[in-house]
TrEMBL record:
It comes from Mobiluncus holmesii ATCC 35242. It holds the Pfam family BtpA. Belongs to the BtpA family. InterPro entries: Aldolase_TIM (IPR013785), BtpA (IPR005137), RibuloseP-bd_barrel (IPR011060). This is Membrane complex biogenesis protein, BtpA family.
Length: 252
């Protein structure tokens, strides 16, 4: 699979498939342990039927991200390998350009930045778009972070549509189920624009949630105990993918 923007946008969501991106949280005691765990998780996601993974410094550091990201990209060409440097958009943009990533996840596309910082943010988005193939996926009202824009939800969602390629909706925290009412609200406002659920998707709620949304970013619910600190489990991945793939062609 060539990791290009054309492929990702060309194959999703128009063909009826639901995009599945798995989280690589970079848990481990030192870099060899962190990387070997990341390899194992990528292998499970790939064999289980996920489309891609997001390398994130949830447990690790930016140095761990820099080490693992290009190695995973080379080792798993069948996966879209993207990045999310938590609350450091500039580093995500830089890595997208440096490694010509197929996509990045931003914690916020609109809403969480004060107005005075937004012109520079938009300039960086344009720089990333002009110098990489990266699809830009980003949150609005992500995990109940403070809203600093001063805008109503409708305005921030319209800004997000102009800035990026897909909107991420979440609930209150990592691994916590996103309220169905919030997913429906986002869908009603953004129309057919790509929408991903970014927290709390599992095999029990995926049918209901992904009949509305176009895909999901999933990590914690697929791990032992349904916790981000646990080990990724192949049977959880397979059961979820089976349920999601049955949704092909379902109307929103």
């Amino acid at each position: 699979m060539m990791q290009t923007k054309q492929n990702l946008l060309g194959n999703w969501p128009g063909n009826g498939e639901k995009l599945l991106l798995g989280m690589i949280h970079l848990k481990g005691n030192e870099i060899d342990d962190i990387y070997s765990r990341a390899v194992r998780e990528c292998d499970i996601y790939a064999r289980g039927g996920f489309d891609g993974v997001i390398v994130e410094n949830y447990f690790g550091t930016i140095d761990d991200v820099r080490y693992c990201l290009p190695r995973l990209q080379d080792k798993f060409p069948q996966l879209y390998v993207g990045v999310d440097v938590i609350w450091d958009n500039d580093k995500s943009f830089d890595l997208a350009v440096e490694h010509q990533l197929p996509f990045i996840e931003l914690d916020s596309l609109a809403g969480q930045l004060p107005p005075q910082e937004e012109p520079q943010f938009e300039e960086r988005i344009r720089w990333c778009q002009e110098n990489s193939p990266a699809v830009i996926l980003g949150g609005v009202r992500l995990k109940n972070q403070p809203v600093l824009s001063g805008n109503p939800l409708e305005v921030d969602l319209m800004l997000a549509k102009k800035r990026g390629d897909g909107v991420i909706v979440t609930g209150v925290d990592t691994g916590v189920e996103t309220e169905l009412s919030k997913i429906i609200q986002f869908r009603e406002i953004i129309g057919d624009f790509p929408l991903l659920v970014g927290a709390g998707v599992n095999e029990k709620n995926c049918t209901e949630q992904l009949t509305i949304a176009d895909g999901a970013i999933i990590g914690s619910s697929l791990k032992q105990g349904g916790n981000a600190k646990g080990d990724l489990e192949m049977d959880r991945v397979e059961r979820l993918v089976t349920a999601v793939r049955a949704l092909r062609g379902k109307v929103k």
